[in-house]
Amino acid sequence: MQVFDPQTIPVPAGHFIGGRLVTDAGRIPVRRPSDNRVHAELPLADAATVDAAVQDAWRALRTSDWARRAPRERARVLRRWADLIEADVRGLAPLEAVCSTRPVRDAGAGDVPFTAEGLRFFAEYADKLGGDVAATRPDHLGMVVAEPYGVVGAITPWNFPLVMVSWKVGAALAAGNAVVLKPSELTPFSAVRLAELAIEAGVPPGMFNVVQGDGQTTGDALTRHPLVAKMTFTGSTRTGASIMAACAVHGPKPVTLELGGKSAQLVFDDAPDLDRLAGIIAGAITGNAGQVCVAGSRLIVQRGVAEALVERIVARFAALRPGATWDDATTLAPIISAGQASRILDIVERSRQTGAELRCGGGLFDGGPGGAYFQPTLISGVAADNAAVQEEIFGPVLTVQTFGDEEEGLELAGHANYGLAAGVHTADIGRALRAMRGISAGTVWINRYGRSADFVIPTGGYHQSGIGKDLGRQAVEANLRFKSVLIDFSEPR
Ligand code: NDP
Known about the structure:
Elements: E1 15-17, E2 20-22, E3 28-31, E4 38-42, H1 47-63, H2 71-87, H3 89-98, H4 104-124, E5 131-134, E6 140-148, E7 151-155, H5 161-174, E8 178-182, H6 189-201, E9 208-210, H7 215-224, E10 228-234, H8 237-249, E11 255-258, E12 264-267, H9 274-286, E13 298-302, H10 303-318, H11 338-353, E14 357-360, E15 377-380, H12 387-390, E16 397-403, H13 406-413, E17 418-419, E18 421-425, H14 429-438, E19 443-446, E20 462-463, E21 466-467, H15 472-477, E22 480-488
Parallel strand pairs: 7-8, 7-10, 8-9, 10-11, 12-13, 12-18, 13-16, 15-16, 18-19
Antiparallel strand pairs: 1-2, 3-4, 5-6, 6-22, 11-21, 14-15, 17-20
The protein binds NADPH dihydro-nicotinamide-adenine-dinucleotide phosphate.
NADPH dihydro-nicotinamide-adenine-dinucleotide phosphate binds next to α7 and α8.
């Protein structure tokens, strides 16, 4: 059933600076992934507009009392913001769904409450990280005082637009910083609505500004800006590296980077309940059509259970229903853009040409409302150097590799470049913990896959999957710098 008519969804197509929507001539067409139609035109912030947004944030830091407020007062405002977000679920869910890949049902039941609860988590940290008292000689007092950086620049991707804002902006504001955010130009609108609600909640104007535009112009100007003291980014490894390089030259300034992944699901033959497991594994690669940084894209399965598990996964794939994000029967999301769909096709094709066997899928669904819908795809018979095993696909494509013993399984679970996440499925706790130690990744889930609402568990990668953490205490700490103080109160000699 169609939940909303996409033509009737108004969008705030502008920047948000100084507590108000700033519109300008449209420069960037924003398409709806579901039907590939242009929904609105977005202005593009050039260096001058980015400068205005950053200067405004800098001014707000000095003239508003945000950084000097009692931390619990900042926390109260952030909690109020979270309440307003939850109360606006009927507006936010379609706004999120219309130009993104997030089905409205998932956006309403998942993304909106997840966004609000994430902000509450960060609010609770506002008065928890003050610093340390150092062990100095007794007639001295040494302190390490936590302070905000000032203006933090944030660049977020298109796959979970709302949730990403709460992770990046929530952590930065709770620590007392101002934030200038550039959302992906593919999914730019819900961030503006969040900024409006932040003002309503009592966040001072300028403390959270949004600039719209592409990476090369707007993102780059934000990264280089001399008043931006720290950058936080989620997206591809390649873009993360160029942001880090720019931060080195135009700072140096610290970066938090949450980047690509090629995460393994390691299944031993004693893993209980293959039906349930098939559901977990299929869900981990088809949720948001695989457009998830921690998608479980490589199944590494012990030979004894491989065929039985693969059959069950293929059956799960077949039950998925592609459809527009405004249809509540949709269980398989569209691909964000035609370009991204052809990138997925290209990798699958190269994988086939080098000997892989397609067990199901492999191409786009025919028909539909006009967007690109990729068939859930399972590829077996792949060598470790196969393109589908090596490259982040960011689509519903699962590769299968089999192994004999634990050592071989662990060897296959590692990846030459990425180390974002992994799943381990076994009934043997010793084996699970050996695998946890053996897998070089920022997160290891045991007998489950995917993040939970336990925001206290940080997320972030090893190797080319990133630097630093989102969520957890670590995310708040990453938005703080530490001033060392040494007080000498010895008797004058
Ligand atoms: P990118 O990493 O290229 O882009 C993410 C964000 O960074 C966008 O807002 C982008 O703007 C911006 N950006 C790009 N170049 C720069 C720059 N030089 N300076 C500052 N900002 C910049 O992701 P894509 O959307 O192009 O997707 C490509 C691949 O990235 C996917 O196939 C997937 O593998 C991976 N990806 C990973 C994500 C994750 O969650 N870790 C999320 C999204 C993508 P613009 O769009 O204008 O380039």
